[in-house]
Amino acid sequence: LAKAPALDPDAIYKTVLSCYPEKSKFDVDVSLRASIRSADVLDENDLSSGLGKSYVGIVANLPLYSGRELDREREREYVRRKDTAKAVADFIAAIASRNHSVRELALYRSLEARSAIRVQSGIVEATEQVGYLEKVATAQEKLVKEETQIMESRLLLAGMCDPLNAERIGTWLKRLSTVPATDD
């Protein structure tokens, strides 16, 4: 089996962080309120305000940032970075575990094949081969679970990106997580 290349968690972390949706340049909450008023108090002849008898008014509220809002923004950024770091760690751990499972499965398959020859030759009983077959099945099940973990982590990391970059990052992560080729 080919040795899996070491992954650079810092590079994955920085790449995923850089593809997050860009913060809005218009990061202000604006609430609008409109109302229709009737100027019953004014005389039709005294319309010096130019509003007429009925008018529409629009009022905008533009709140200023407070220290509390800045603290909330820092907390959101901390949580975002922490979640990204956890997702990257899960992704790399799943790849390492999958690579170990591939090696373990190859070992059990070779031991089972050796045992099959020993059973055919009458050297040992079939229980040895059955034991290795059970280990092969268990290792195969573990491998499927690890592949599922890799897929989940990869989709989570790609999903953290904005739609324009998600496909590119997903393809890159898929390439990183492929099983190393053998020299057979």
Largest sheet, if any? 2 strands, antiparallel
Distance between the termini: 9 Å
Oligomer: single chain
Strand ordering within the main sheet: 1-2
Percentage of residues assigned to helices: 55-70%
Mean pLDDT: 81
How many β strands by DSSP? 2
Beta strand %: 5-15%
Spell out the helices and strands N to C: HEEHHH
> How many alpha or pi helices?
4
Low-confidence stretches: none
- Class from secondary-structure proportions: mainly alpha
Shape: rod-shaped
Radius of gyration, CA atoms, in whole angstroms: 32 Å
Question: What labels would you give this structure?
Answer:
184 residues; mainly alpha; 4 helices; 61% helix; two-stranded antiparallel sheet
What does this protein structure show overall?
The structure is a single chain. This protein is mostly helical. The protein contains four helices and two strands; from the N terminus they run αββααα. The protein has helices spanning 9-18, 67-120, 126-159, 163-176; strands spanning 31-38, 54-61. The protein has a two-stranded antiparallel ribbon with strand order 1-2. Helix 1 packs across helix 2 (67-120).
Quick gist of this model?
With 184 residues, the chain is mainly alpha-helical. The chain has helices at residues 9-18, 67-120, 126-159, 163-176; strands at residues 31-38, 54-61. The protein has a two-stranded antiparallel sheet.
